[in-house]
Model the fold of this input.
Amino acid sequence: MSIGSDIRDKLVRLEDFSSEPRAGFSSDAIPYFLSIADAFIILVSCIAGGVAYQLSVGNPMPDILPHCAVGLLASFIYTLRMSGSGYYDFPDSAKPRVEIGEILVCWSTTGLLLAFFAFLLKVGVDYSRGAFVVFYFLAPIGLLALRKLTKVALAAAVTSGSVGRRDIVLIGDSSEIAALEPRDLLAFFGAAEINRFTLSREDDPLIRSSTDIRIINSVANFVRRHNCREILLALPWGDAGRIEFVRDQIKTLPVAARLLPDMHVRSLTNFTSSARQQVLAIEIQRAPLNGAQRLVKRIMDIAVAALALIFFLPVMALTAIAIKLDGPGPVIFRQSRKGFNGRQFVIFKFRTMTVQENGAAVAQAMRDDPRVTAIGRLLRSASIDELPQLLNVLKGFVVFAELSAAHTHQCQGVRMIGFAG
Done:
């Protein structure tokens, strides 16, 4: 096989993936839908159980508000605990077996916590014990039925290709990828098809390395373009040299990377037999932040940026007036830049130059640059021109500090640290 034909095959495959995703619905949203559905079932069970009990004993229609409060509290406790164990993750949700034991154990302990809170808060007057007993036995029936229905629906969606993993890329040896059966892909990813790239089949080490570099560069472009979150490697565990080579090539990407068990290791265990069994995989690179950390950081970004905007609002207003009085031109400078993982965004800064350059080729700012205005020189020395970047923080973009000239090529430069969104 020639190098050229091998590379062309990979590039064609890349274009096929980038032109139109296979899946019509991303699996990222599945955990949110499943947790909301469970919460809804618990809430409805609480209201229905309370109403049914009160009517069955001859009491008038009860007040719904206490039942809603208990149902919401139970929903929060249950979904929080199940989320922490990965119950709503797409691969586990797509596996066929219903996790009866896990559901019943979690709900039983949730009921005990509810009873404990009811004792502490003394809510027995507003919410009867009989209604709680009916709710306690009705909710798990609904949760089990819902889980079974979602399993069936997800299986059909995975088979039709309407749901899949767009956030994962599989890189591997040709023999290892070929050995991955649909059941293996379902156990690993919860999807029958994912974005996969096969490395070179060349025997010559130099030719193979050159070809692998080109393929991995194509993978890197694909990861940045589609905001992928994880790279999985399907390589023989005995080929330590190639594993090390691929790891060195992908270490600049801000994504997690795991080495999957090869065909020999998979033959030693029936990892698809249990829906909750964790599949053995070696983490060779961690992502900068996991989902929970990103959420916490995003909340902090919004809070800090909002407070900073309020605090610096008088300074920003005076700066805008000064720029207008200094000469003609807009107050805000806008320019396209690249942030985290190559994501492109429009930066907002106070204008400090007489030019508004933008595009691929931009003359970078220099010391004593004649394009800098009189007020702009003062703003740049105090970094006041960077304050509008707080708007980028609120929008969730990333602004890096002190980017090198090889990566910035902008006329204004970036001198303050932004927040990662």
In short: The chain has 15 helices and nine strands. The longest strand covers residues 332-338.
